[in-house]
Every structure is written in structure tokens, then in C-alpha cells.
Amino acid sequence: MLIWIVLALVLLPLVALALAVRPVLARLPKLRRAAEALQRRAGEAEALRETAEALQQRAEGVQRQLDTAQQRLELIKAKRG
Length: 81
Description:
Oligomer: single chain
Shape: rod-shaped
């Protein structure tokens, strides 16, 4: 009789634990797919950030060229008088 009580005290919590863990384990594939999708998005975001930085540098270079051209145009206008 004591063995049955000990088995019940050991097995019932194990069964309860298994029942509690089962839904979590069932969701793991979805969670893994979601994590992979987030990692892909993070990679895409990083690539976009790098592209944006390159565009920003290009825009700054074009702005410098525009400023230089404007100064030259003003000099030409000043010389023509």
C-alpha cells in the first residue's frame, strides 16, 4: 500500500508537468519559425541601413559639388559684372 502512495506522489506531479509542458512543446516549431523570420528581417534591416548610409554619403558629396558649382557661378557672374 505504501508503494502505491509513493508512486502516486511521484507519478501525479510528473503527469501534471507533462500536461503543462505539452502545449509549450507544441508551439516550439512556430516559435522557431518566428525567430528565423525575425532574424531574416534583422538582416534585411541591416542591409537597408548600410544602403541608407551609402546614399547619405553620396548625397553629401553631391551637395558639396553643388556648393562648389554655385560658388563658381557666382564668381563668373561677378566677373561679368
